[in-house]
Specification:
Blueprint lengths: L1 E6 L7 H15 L3 E6 H4 L21 H11 L4 H12 L2 E7 L7 H10 L11 E2 L2 E2 L12 E7 L16 H14 L4 E2 L3 E3 L8 H16 L55
Parallel strand pairs: 1-2, 1-3, 3-6, 6-7, 6-8
Antiparallel strand pairs: 4-5
Helix pairs in contact: 1-7
This protein binds flavin-adenine dinucleotide.
Length: about 270
Protein backbone atom coordinates (compact mmCIF):
# COMPACT_ATOMS: atom_id res chain seq x y z
CA UNK A 1 0.00 0.00 0.00
CA UNK A 2 0.98 3.63 -0.38
CA UNK A 3 1.01 5.68 2.79
CA UNK A 4 1.12 9.45 2.91
CA UNK A 5 2.03 10.97 6.27
CA UNK A 6 1.54 14.69 6.72
CA UNK A 7 3.70 15.50 9.70
CA UNK A 8 3.68 18.75 11.66
CA UNK A 9 6.29 19.22 14.38
CA UNK A 10 9.04 21.83 14.42
CA UNK A 11 11.70 19.61 16.02
CA UNK A 12 13.02 16.49 14.26
CA UNK A 13 14.40 15.18 17.59
CA UNK A 14 10.99 15.39 19.24
CA UNK A 15 8.94 12.43 20.29
CA UNK A 16 6.72 13.10 17.30
CA UNK A 17 9.79 12.98 15.10
CA UNK A 18 10.76 9.63 16.61
CA UNK A 19 7.24 8.28 16.17
CA UNK A 20 7.25 9.33 12.54
CA UNK A 21 10.70 7.87 11.87
CA UNK A 22 9.80 4.54 13.49
CA UNK A 23 6.57 4.35 11.53
CA UNK A 24 8.22 5.12 8.21
CA UNK A 25 10.95 2.55 8.80
CA UNK A 26 8.46 -0.12 9.83
CA UNK A 27 6.16 0.49 6.89
CA UNK A 28 9.03 0.40 4.40
CA UNK A 29 10.43 -2.74 6.01
CA UNK A 30 7.02 -4.35 5.45
CA UNK A 31 7.21 -3.49 1.76
CA UNK A 32 4.92 -0.45 1.70
CA UNK A 33 5.56 2.82 -0.09
CA UNK A 34 5.66 5.86 2.16
CA UNK A 35 5.61 9.54 1.31
CA UNK A 36 6.08 12.10 4.07
CA UNK A 37 5.34 15.80 3.96
CA UNK A 38 7.40 17.16 6.84
CA UNK A 39 5.81 20.59 6.84
CA UNK A 40 8.35 22.48 8.95
CA UNK A 41 11.33 21.01 7.10
CA UNK A 42 9.65 21.84 3.80
CA UNK A 43 9.14 25.41 4.96
CA UNK A 44 5.46 25.01 4.16
CA UNK A 45 3.70 28.34 3.66
CA UNK A 46 0.78 28.22 6.06
CA UNK A 47 -1.17 31.37 5.20
CA UNK A 48 -3.63 31.11 2.35
CA UNK A 49 -3.49 34.27 0.23
CA UNK A 50 -3.37 35.56 -3.32
CA UNK A 51 0.16 34.37 -3.94
CA UNK A 52 -1.26 30.81 -4.07
CA UNK A 53 -2.36 31.57 -7.63
CA UNK A 54 0.24 32.25 -10.30
CA UNK A 55 -2.00 34.72 -12.16
CA UNK A 56 -3.00 36.63 -9.02
CA UNK A 57 -3.67 40.29 -9.65
CA UNK A 58 -3.43 42.29 -6.39
CA UNK A 59 -5.38 45.12 -8.02
CA UNK A 60 -8.47 42.91 -7.97
CA UNK A 61 -10.43 41.91 -4.89
CA UNK A 62 -9.42 38.41 -3.84
CA UNK A 63 -12.23 35.91 -3.33
CA UNK A 64 -10.13 32.98 -2.19
CA UNK A 65 -12.61 30.17 -2.89
CA UNK A 66 -13.36 31.23 -6.44
CA UNK A 67 -9.70 32.03 -7.18
CA UNK A 68 -8.90 28.58 -5.85
CA UNK A 69 -11.41 26.99 -8.20
CA UNK A 70 -10.10 28.90 -11.19
CA UNK A 71 -6.50 27.99 -10.39
CA UNK A 72 -7.32 24.35 -9.77
CA UNK A 73 -9.26 24.11 -13.04
CA UNK A 74 -6.70 26.01 -15.13
CA UNK A 75 -3.59 24.49 -13.59
CA UNK A 76 -2.46 27.84 -12.21
CA UNK A 77 -2.04 26.81 -8.59
CA UNK A 78 1.45 27.20 -7.19
CA UNK A 79 3.55 24.02 -7.57
CA UNK A 80 3.69 23.35 -3.82
CA UNK A 81 -0.10 23.03 -3.66
CA UNK A 82 -0.33 20.87 -6.79
CA UNK A 83 2.41 18.57 -5.49
CA UNK A 84 0.54 17.90 -2.24
CA UNK A 85 -2.67 17.17 -4.14
CA UNK A 86 -0.76 14.61 -6.20
CA UNK A 87 0.49 12.95 -3.02
CA UNK A 88 -3.08 12.68 -1.75
CA UNK A 89 -4.22 11.15 -5.01
CA UNK A 90 -1.36 8.63 -4.97
CA UNK A 91 -2.09 7.47 -1.41
CA UNK A 92 -4.10 4.53 -0.16
CA UNK A 93 -3.75 5.64 3.47
CA UNK A 94 -3.45 9.26 4.57
CA UNK A 95 -2.17 10.06 8.06
CA UNK A 96 -2.12 13.47 9.72
CA UNK A 97 0.37 13.32 12.59
CA UNK A 98 0.73 16.21 15.02
CA UNK A 99 0.95 17.26 18.67
CA UNK A 100 -2.30 18.64 20.06
CA UNK A 101 -1.78 22.38 20.32
CA UNK A 102 -4.54 24.40 21.90
CA UNK A 103 -7.11 21.69 21.29
CA UNK A 104 -6.31 21.38 17.64
CA UNK A 105 -3.63 20.99 15.06
CA UNK A 106 -0.58 23.25 14.73
CA UNK A 107 -1.22 26.25 12.48
CA UNK A 108 1.15 24.98 9.81
CA UNK A 109 -1.03 21.90 9.30
CA UNK A 110 -4.21 23.95 9.23
CA UNK A 111 -2.55 26.04 6.55
CA UNK A 112 -1.69 22.90 4.60
CA UNK A 113 -5.39 22.00 4.56
CA UNK A 114 -6.52 25.54 3.72
CA UNK A 115 -4.24 25.65 0.68
CA UNK A 116 -4.13 22.04 -0.56
CA UNK A 117 -7.87 21.45 -0.21
CA UNK A 118 -8.68 23.53 -3.28
CA UNK A 119 -12.14 24.38 -4.54
CA UNK A 120 -12.90 21.74 -7.17
CA UNK A 121 -10.50 19.29 -5.54
CA UNK A 122 -11.99 18.57 -2.13
CA UNK A 123 -14.98 20.89 -2.05
CA UNK A 124 -17.30 22.21 -4.71
CA UNK A 125 -17.29 18.70 -6.19
CA UNK A 126 -20.42 17.15 -7.71
CA UNK A 127 -23.88 18.56 -8.31
CA UNK A 128 -25.00 21.53 -6.23
CA UNK A 129 -28.57 22.78 -6.36
CA UNK A 130 -31.85 20.99 -7.03
CA UNK A 131 -31.69 19.30 -3.65
CA UNK A 132 -28.08 18.23 -4.20
CA UNK A 133 -25.31 19.40 -1.95
CA UNK A 134 -22.35 18.03 -3.85
CA UNK A 135 -20.28 14.96 -3.28
CA UNK A 136 -19.05 15.21 0.26
CA UNK A 137 -19.23 13.42 3.61
CA UNK A 138 -18.66 9.91 2.42
CA UNK A 139 -18.07 10.54 -1.27
CA UNK A 140 -15.82 12.89 -3.15
CA UNK A 141 -12.51 13.24 -4.87
CA UNK A 142 -10.60 11.33 -2.17
CA UNK A 143 -12.97 8.41 -1.77
CA UNK A 144 -11.34 5.00 -1.76
CA UNK A 145 -8.66 6.18 0.63
CA UNK A 146 -8.41 5.46 4.33
CA UNK A 147 -7.32 8.21 6.66
CA UNK A 148 -6.54 8.72 10.32
CA UNK A 149 -5.08 11.08 12.87
CA UNK A 150 -2.07 10.28 15.02
CA UNK A 151 -1.99 12.76 17.89
CA UNK A 152 0.12 13.31 20.97
CA UNK A 153 -1.30 15.26 23.89
CA UNK A 154 0.16 16.55 27.09
CA UNK A 155 -3.10 16.18 28.98
CA UNK A 156 -4.37 13.13 30.79
CA UNK A 157 -6.66 10.61 29.17
CA UNK A 158 -9.35 11.16 31.82
CA UNK A 159 -9.51 14.85 30.94
CA UNK A 160 -10.49 13.90 27.39
CA UNK A 161 -13.18 11.35 28.23
CA UNK A 162 -16.83 12.24 27.40
CA UNK A 163 -17.31 14.04 30.73
CA UNK A 164 -13.72 15.14 31.14
CA UNK A 165 -12.86 18.78 31.70
CA UNK A 166 -11.10 19.20 28.34
CA UNK A 167 -14.07 17.87 26.39
CA UNK A 168 -14.39 14.51 24.68
CA UNK A 169 -11.45 13.90 22.39
CA UNK A 170 -13.74 12.66 19.61
CA UNK A 171 -15.56 15.99 19.70
CA UNK A 172 -12.35 18.00 19.73
CA UNK A 173 -11.04 16.09 16.73
CA UNK A 174 -14.38 16.07 14.87
CA UNK A 175 -13.54 19.16 12.81
CA UNK A 176 -10.61 17.19 11.40
CA UNK A 177 -11.97 13.64 11.27
CA UNK A 178 -15.39 14.63 9.94
CA UNK A 179 -14.73 18.07 8.47
CA UNK A 180 -11.39 17.43 6.79
CA UNK A 181 -11.02 13.68 6.21
CA UNK A 182 -14.62 12.49 5.77
CA UNK A 183 -15.72 15.60 3.84
CA UNK A 184 -13.82 14.78 0.63
CA UNK A 185 -14.81 11.12 0.83
CA UNK A 186 -12.12 9.35 2.78
CA UNK A 187 -12.95 6.45 5.09
CA UNK A 188 -11.89 7.62 8.53
CA UNK A 189 -10.28 5.32 11.06
CA UNK A 190 -10.47 6.02 14.80
CA UNK A 191 -7.81 8.46 15.89
CA UNK A 192 -4.75 7.16 17.64
CA UNK A 193 -4.16 9.46 20.60
CA UNK A 194 -1.24 9.28 23.00
CA UNK A 195 -1.77 11.06 26.30
CA UNK A 196 0.63 12.47 28.91
CA UNK A 197 3.46 12.11 26.48
CA UNK A 198 5.69 14.35 28.56
CA UNK A 199 5.24 12.11 31.56
CA UNK A 200 6.27 8.61 30.67
CA UNK A 201 8.22 6.77 33.26
CA UNK A 202 10.53 4.54 31.34
CA UNK A 203 11.93 3.72 27.94
CA UNK A 204 9.61 0.75 27.61
CA UNK A 205 6.65 3.15 27.46
CA UNK A 206 8.11 4.87 24.46
CA UNK A 207 8.81 1.55 22.80
CA UNK A 208 5.16 0.62 23.37
CA UNK A 209 4.08 3.86 21.70
CA UNK A 210 6.26 3.24 18.69
CA UNK A 211 4.90 -0.30 18.46
CA UNK A 212 1.28 0.84 18.82
CA UNK A 213 1.70 3.42 16.08
CA UNK A 214 3.35 1.10 13.59
CA UNK A 215 0.95 -1.71 14.40
CA UNK A 216 -2.02 0.55 13.76
CA UNK A 217 -0.58 1.80 10.47
CA UNK A 218 0.23 -1.71 9.29
CA UNK A 219 -3.34 -2.74 10.13
CA UNK A 220 -4.94 0.30 8.45
CA UNK A 221 -6.66 -1.78 5.79
CA UNK A 222 -8.50 -3.82 8.44
CA UNK A 223 -9.33 -1.36 11.20
CA UNK A 224 -13.06 -0.74 11.61
CA UNK A 225 -13.73 2.87 10.54
CA UNK A 226 -15.65 5.51 12.46
CA UNK A 227 -19.26 4.93 11.36
CA UNK A 228 -19.92 8.48 10.15
CA UNK A 229 -23.24 8.85 8.36
CA UNK A 230 -22.88 9.62 4.66
CA UNK A 231 -24.54 12.79 3.43
CA UNK A 232 -26.32 11.11 0.55
CA UNK A 233 -27.08 7.82 2.26
CA UNK A 234 -30.63 8.71 3.34
CA UNK A 235 -30.09 9.72 6.97
CA UNK A 236 -30.31 13.45 6.18
CA UNK A 237 -33.27 15.27 4.66
CA UNK A 238 -33.08 17.76 1.78
CA UNK A 239 -31.94 20.48 4.15
CA UNK A 240 -29.12 18.21 5.30
CA UNK A 241 -30.65 17.79 8.72
CA UNK A 242 -30.80 14.38 10.34
CA UNK A 243 -34.26 12.90 9.80
CA UNK A 244 -36.66 12.77 12.75
CA UNK A 245 -36.41 9.54 14.64
CA UNK A 246 -32.75 9.00 13.93
CA UNK A 247 -30.99 9.26 17.27
CA UNK A 248 -34.30 10.43 18.75
CA UNK A 249 -33.99 14.10 19.58
CA UNK A 250 -30.36 13.83 20.48
CA UNK A 251 -28.06 16.64 19.46
CA UNK A 252 -24.32 16.99 19.43
CA UNK A 253 -21.58 15.71 17.23
CA UNK A 254 -22.07 12.04 18.06
CA UNK A 255 -25.40 11.98 16.18
CA UNK A 256 -23.39 11.99 12.96
CA UNK A 257 -22.18 8.49 13.72
CA UNK A 258 -24.47 5.50 13.30
CA UNK A 259 -22.94 3.99 16.42
CA UNK A 260 -21.59 5.91 19.38
CA UNK A 261 -17.99 5.67 20.39
CA UNK A 262 -18.38 6.21 24.12
CA UNK A 263 -16.51 3.00 24.81
CA UNK A 264 -13.78 4.38 22.63
CA UNK A 265 -11.44 1.60 21.60
CA UNK A 266 -8.62 3.91 20.66
CA UNK A 267 -8.43 6.14 23.67
CA UNK A 268 -5.04 4.64 24.10
CA UNK A 269 -4.02 4.77 27.69
CA UNK A 270 -0.49 5.52 28.52
CA UNK A 271 1.31 2.46 27.36
CA UNK A 272 2.13 0.14 30.21
CA UNK A 273 5.68 0.39 31.44
C1 LIG B 1 1.62 25.59 21.83
C2 LIG B 1 1.25 24.36 22.60
C3 LIG B 1 -0.08 24.08 22.84
C4 LIG B 1 -0.45 22.91 23.51
N1 LIG B 1 -1.77 22.63 23.69
C5 LIG B 1 -2.14 21.49 24.28
C6 LIG B 1 -3.50 21.15 24.41
O1 LIG B 1 -4.40 21.89 24.01
N2 LIG B 1 -3.83 19.96 25.00
C7 LIG B 1 -2.87 19.11 25.46
O2 LIG B 1 -3.21 18.03 25.98
N3 LIG B 1 -1.56 19.39 25.33
C8 LIG B 1 -1.18 20.55 24.74
N4 LIG B 1 0.14 20.83 24.56
C9 LIG B 1 1.13 19.79 24.91
C10 LIG B 1 1.54 19.05 23.63
O3 LIG B 1 0.46 18.32 23.10
C11 LIG B 1 2.69 18.11 23.93
O4 LIG B 1 3.79 18.92 24.35
C12 LIG B 1 3.11 17.31 22.73
O5 LIG B 1 2.08 16.44 22.33
C13 LIG B 1 4.34 16.49 23.04
O6 LIG B 1 4.80 15.92 21.85
P1 LIG B 1 6.30 16.21 21.36
O7 LIG B 1 6.56 15.40 20.13
O8 LIG B 1 6.51 17.69 21.26
O9 LIG B 1 7.08 15.61 22.59
P2 LIG B 1 8.53 15.96 23.15
O10 LIG B 1 8.41 17.12 24.06
O11 LIG B 1 9.51 16.04 22.04
O12 LIG B 1 8.84 14.63 23.96
C14 LIG B 1 8.02 14.19 25.04
C15 LIG B 1 8.84 13.28 25.93
O13 LIG B 1 9.22 12.16 25.18
C16 LIG B 1 10.58 11.84 25.49
N5 LIG B 1 11.12 10.90 24.50
C17 LIG B 1 11.23 9.56 24.70
N6 LIG B 1 11.72 8.94 23.64
C18 LIG B 1 11.99 9.89 22.75
C19 LIG B 1 12.56 9.84 21.46
N7 LIG B 1 12.98 8.69 20.89
N8 LIG B 1 12.70 11.00 20.79
C20 LIG B 1 12.30 12.16 21.36
N9 LIG B 1 11.73 12.25 22.60
C21 LIG B 1 11.60 11.13 23.29
C22 LIG B 1 11.19 13.21 25.62
O14 LIG B 1 12.41 13.14 26.33
C23 LIG B 1 10.12 13.94 26.40
O15 LIG B 1 10.24 13.70 27.79
C24 LIG B 1 0.54 22.01 23.95
C25 LIG B 1 1.89 22.30 23.71
C26 LIG B 1 2.24 23.46 23.06
C27 LIG B 1 3.71 23.75 22.81
Amino acid sequence: MRYFIVYAHPEPRSLNGALKDHAVAALRAAGHEVEVSDLYTMGWKAAADGSDFVDYDPAKRLVYASASNTAFTNGTQTPDIAAEQEKLLRADVVVLQFPLWWYGMPAILKGWIDRVYANGFTYGVGQHGGGKWGNRFGEGRLSGRRAMLAVTAGGRREHYTPRGVNGFIDDLLFPITHGVLFYPGMTVLPSLVFYEVHNFLGDTSYDAMFAAYTERLLDAANVEPIPFRSQNGGDYDDRQVLRPGIEGDAVGLAVHQSEPSVAHPTLLLRAAS
